[in-house]
Amino acid sequence: MNDKNRLFRTTRSTDPEVQESPIHFLKSLSTSENLFFIRNHFPYPTLNSKISLRIYGEVYKPLVFHFEHFKQMKSKSLKVMLECAGNKRSKFEPRVYGEQWENGAISQGTWRGITLNELFKYTGIKSNVQEVVFEGYDFGERPDGKHASFIRSLPISKALHSDTIIAYEYNGSPLSFKRGGPLRLIVPQWYAMASVKWLKNIYLVEKPFSGPFQTDDYVYYPNKTNKDNAFPVTTVNVNTTIQQPLNFSKLGVGEHEIKGISWSGKGKIVEVAVSINDSEWISADLKKNSQGYTWTPWSYKWKVKHKGHYSIRAKATDSTGSTQPFRAYWNQKGYGYNAIDTIYINIE
C-alpha cells in the first residue's frame, strides 16, 4: 500500500510493513497518525465494506454486531500508550532474532470505543469462562512456515477491566485502516500485541487458549538453548528513553537540557533520575501527568564546564517501586527490554 507518511518513520520491514516512530522528536502527548509506529505480522488484510464482529462461544446469546451498532452504544475515551513488546530489541546482548527495533516501537493517543463489559451485556457470559479470544482479519505465513491468523486471548479479568475497549476512533477521527480499523482492541498496561487489530471474531472459552501468538511468540524464554521456565509477555515494564540530546551528539561547554519520556504498565512514574559519567543519581523534573496510561515527560538541566566525553544515564521508578535495571532481562525472543537508558556525548 502506498503511504506517503512512511517518510516520517524508520522502515524495519516492507513485507509485512514494520515502521518505527521518530520517538526522539515527538513532543506531544498524542502521537499524530503519520508518526504512529507500525507493527504487522502479515500483509494487510482485505476488508469488505460490511464489517461485522461476531461474538460466540461460552455465551448465552451469540451475536453479530455491525459497525453502525457501535456508534449507538455508550462509548468511552482513553489516552493510552501502545508499546511493541520488541521495542529496543536491538540493544540486547547477546543479540536476538526478530525485528531490530531501536527506541521507536511506541506511540500514544486518545482512543474511543466500547468496553467489552458493554458488549457482553447483550450476549451474557457463562460462569465457566476463563479467557476471551480475539481474532483479527490478518493472516498469512509465519517465519516457521505455518499459516495462521493473528489470534490472542486475555484472561477474563483483564478482558472485563473497565478500560479494555474495542476502539473505532483515534484522536477524534475514525480509526484508520493502518491503525487496525475499523475496529481494534485496546488493552491498557499490556504490550501492544494484546491490542488485536482488524477485529473479526471474539469467542469465550473455558480453558486456556494455545495459538502460536500466545504460546510460542510473546513468551519469555530465559534460557539460550531450551524453553524451560517460560512465562507469557503481559504487562509493560518500567522504562525510559532519552529523547534529547541525540546519542553521539557534539555539544559545546555550557547549559544543555536533557529531555525524555518514561512509562510503566504497573503504576505511575514517580521519579526519573539522571547520572553523568556514573556519578550520583540526581532527580529530573517530571511534567505533571494525571493520565495513568501514557508516558511521563521529564527534563534535567545539565551544566557542563569542561570538554570531553560524557555518558548520560536515565532511569525511572514507578509507584509500585519497580525501577529499571542496569541490564535487561535477556530472553530468546528479545521482549521487554528496559535497561537504564544511556547516551554518549562529546563536549567540544
From TrEMBL:
InterPro entries: Ig_E-set, MoCF_OxRdtse_dimer, Mopterin_OxRdtase_euk, OxRdtase_Mopterin-bd_dom, OxRdtase_Mopterin-bd_sf. Residues 234-339 form the Moybdenum cofactor oxidoreductase dimerisation domain. Its cofactor is Mo-molybdopterin. Pfam families: Mo-co_dimer, Oxidored_molyb. The keyword Oxidoreductase applies. The keyword Kinase does not apply. Keywords: Metal-binding, Molybdenum, Oxidoreductase. Residues 41-211 form the Oxidoreductase molybdopterin-binding domain. PANTHER family: SULFITE OXIDASE, MITOCHONDRIAL (PTHR19372:SF7), SULFITE REDUCTASE (PTHR19372). This is Sulfite oxidase. It comes from Evansella alkalicola.
